[in-house]
Design goal:
Blueprint: H1 11-31, H2 42-63, H3 66-71, H4 73-90, E1 92-94, E2 97-103, E3 106-108, H5 110-129, H6 135-153, H7 158-174, H8 179-191, H9 193-197, H10 202-212, H11 223-235, H12 246-249, H13 261-294, H14 298-322, H15 340-358
Antiparallel strand pairs: 1-2, 2-3
Helix pairs in contact: 1-2, 1-13, 2-15, 4-5, 4-6, 5-6, 5-7, 5-14, 5-15, 6-7, 7-14, 11-13, 13-14, 13-15, 14-15
Length: 365
């Protein structure tokens, strides 16, 4: 890599992600009760380790031109599909879901990396076909995303499946598709919901019903949302203070270091802390969209837009879930929720976006 490219590197985005990660580490430390004798620093140490691994992956991604990375997209796509199939053979089952491949003391979640595989491979395809011009192009896009989506949906992992759909719609929307066709697809999707309902697992149906009325099962499926809303509401303006949130410290919030970590932030850091995190996310996504607009070619625009679609959807759904505005789907909050596969994947995604921005113009001698 020519070091002169570094003058185009968006260091602001790296700084924004670093501040988001700092909030994450504080929340994870509190959620795992690291301040108590019976608590643990294990999650903090592991998440910090994954962050450093992610930085290394980011640096490697920056060294390789994104056109070269995109040329490998078919191999990455099929390798990920193979890993998703392997999950069914040797995957570890946790809480009724078979999503992880055990590797020594750790576990790999291929569905997280499916997001990147779809972003890069679909971006390369749309660049080659010059967007979605007709139904034939659209059918190929559906098949392309549909293969990993169905494999992930069967794990079952509805949340990640929805993220893949969000990425697909984001890329299709900017590809120059006829708007009548685009909104026609959305309309058809809405009309097909009664049919899709029959394919949902019982617990997924229950989550949707409880989303409409959490009091239907306050000690079961509705418990997560009720306790999360109590935690966020009790944080008020300034929060109760780090390690001082009663809902968090007394373990009323389920999955407080992963899916419901925003509830911990809301309770202990209050409205101000929650608002700060939201502002950081908005600034991050704004910078991604700026890179998409200024990219020197459509491939770069597609890659950056795919990442922006992924992060925006995950942020809105995860935070909406903790506030009771969205059904509980198990979608992690990017860079914040505990999880090695998720964090490393997001760092690679950040590297891809920075890669596009760094190579937006030719080097002048």
């Amino acid at each position: 890599m020519d070091t002169r490219l570094l003058k185009n590197l968006n260091f602001k985005m790296i700084l924004i992600v670093f501040f988001i990660f700092l909030i994450s580490i504080l929340a994870i430390a509190s959620a795992s009760h690291a301040n108590k004798p019976d608590g643990t620093l294990r999650y903090v140490v592991l998440q910090s380790t994954w962050f450093l691994v992610g930085l290394l992956c980011l640096a490697i991604v920056l060294m390789i031109d994104y056109h070269t990375i995109a040329s490998l997209a078919p191999y990455v796509y099929f390798a990920n599909v193979l890993l998703l199939i392997i999950v069914y053979a040797i995957g570890k089952t946790t809480m009724g879901a078979q999503r992880w491949i055990p590797i020594g003391h750790f576990s790999l979640q291929p569905s997280e990396f499916a997001k990147l595989a779809v972003i890069v491979s679909l971006s390369k395809h749309l660049e080659k076909t010059k967007g979605v011009k007709n139904i034939k192009d659209l059918i190929f896009v559906f098949l392309h995303v549909g293969v990993p989506l169905i494999l992930i949906l069967k794990q079952p992992d509805l949340g990640t499946s929805l993220v893949l759909l969000a990425i697909m719609f984001g890329l299709v929307f900017i590809s120059g598709i006829n708007l009548k066709l685009f909104f026609g697809i959305i309309g058809a999707g809405i009309l097909s919901m009664p049919v899709l309902w029959e394919f949902l697992h019982d617990y997924q149906k229950k989550r949707i019903l409880v989303f409409l009325n959490p009091n239907l099962d306050p000690l079961g499926a509705g418990y997560h949302v009720i306790q999360s809303k109590i935690a966020i509401g009790s944080g008020r303006i300034l929060g109760k203070g780090l390690f001082q949130g009663t809902q968090n410290q007394l373990d009323f919030i389920p999955e407080q270091h992963t899916d419901f970590i925003f509830a911990v932030i809301g309770e202990e850091m209050g409205f101000i802390g929650s608002l700060l995190l939201l502002i950081l996310f908005i600034l991050l996504i704004y910078n991604v969209l700026q890179i998409a607009l200024k990219s020197k070619d459509t491939l770069g625009t597609f890659i950056a837009t795919g990442v922006a679609s992924m992060w925006t959807f995950q942020m809105l759904v995860n935070i909406g879930m903790t506030l009771g505005l969205m059904p509980v789907t198990g979608i992690p909050l990017p860079f914040v929720s505990y999880g090695g596969s998720s964090l490393i994947m997001n760092m690679i995604a950040l590297g891809l976006v920075l890669n596009v921005g760094m190579r937006r113009q030719k080097i002048l001698f």
